[in-house]
Amino acid sequence: MAEVSARRQHAFRVLMRRHMPRALRVAQRIVRDPVEADDIGQEAFMRVWTHAASFDPQVAKFTTWLYRIVLNLTFDRTRRRTFQPLEDAGDVPDTGPHAVERLIADEELRLLNRAMAGLSDRQRGAIALFHMEGLSGEEAANAMNLSAKAFESLLGRARTALKANVQKIQQTGSHV
Amino acid sequence: MTPEQFRQLAETWGGDVERWPAPTREAARRIAATAEGAAVLHQQARLDRLLAVAPEIETARADRSSFLVLQRLADMPQPHRPAWYRLLRWPALVPAASLACSALVGVWLAGAMPYVHSPSDPLSVMSGVFDVYAMGFGSVQ
Asked: Is residue B52 less than 8 Å (CB to CB) from chain A?
């Protein structure tokens, strides 16, 4: 990061190669639209470049800083958005030896994606950071600019709402 | 920690006690060792596994996004730099520039002027001495 602050493009390229997938993954988990996730990822790294001098490694890890930028951009966009994107659960053909198990898992994932659509952006963000990215509660709270207690509450509400949505979908077969 | 508190924590943090807040872990491990505790964790761990599945991001897609970022940076207007001759407007630079110019002219003259080596034979020396005296006493100079 010190080299990025010194405006070295090579260092910035290395940084993007290492962390761009992370930014896209988190953004896509929240906005559920790959094109919009790409936009967010690009905008996040533009901010990393322009605000590199303000990054202080004593205060936070680079990944925490990046998560925070991505989440802020994502929440800003979804606040402005007036429509919901289509579900991104496509069929994945599988001819491998564990095809049946894979089908069941795919079905569960489709169900989960539909249930996730009923959560708020912040709830999806909490799940993405804690479960998908494997951050600790403290790290995730830091990335979301929340206290540990507030993050715990948010994550708990997210999981509860998710289970309720799954049950609702299973009972009615309809979108939440 | 009561079994109800344990269940609530499992519903919040999932089926892996080691990822729960540090102050709760010790007591949670004791309940997790029981059959009821293990069943609660098992149920939550199944959801955890599903939640941990990340959208697949192909390398080509990430690379394309990185390339677009570099392209946007290249398109950004560069910070304005003043033309070199505008630096001469700075009053502090004028004496330094004058000195540098004088030194350059001096060096150039030293290199451009023909080097005349005065002859050192006795006749020429005597002739030179007479010339000097002639200029001092008899010439119009």
From this structure: yes
Q: Between A13, A127, A137, which is nearest B66 by CB?
A: A13
pTM over 0.95? The answer is no
Going residue by residue through chain A, which has 176 residues, state the pLDDT in tens, using 9 for 90 and above: 777 777 788 899 999 999 999 999 999 999 989 999 999 999 999 999 999 888 888 888 899 999 999 999 999 887 776 555 544 444 444 445 566 666 667 787 888 888 888 999 999 999 999 999 999 999 999 999 999 999 999 999 999 999 899 888 888 865 55
Hey, where are the domains in chain A? 1-86, 94-176
Identity of residue A20: M
Look up residue A83 and give its amino acid.
Answer: F
CA atoms within 13 A on the CB side of A70: 31
Q: Do domains A1-86 and A94-176 have the same CATH topology?
A: no
> So what's the ipTM on this one?
0.77
**Cα–Cα distance measured from residue A24 to residue A36, given in angstroms and rounded to the nearest whole number:** 9
User: Which CATH code fits A1-86?
Assistant: 1.10.1740.10
Q: Give the one of B12, B48, B70 whose C-beta lies nearest to A156's C-beta.
A: B12
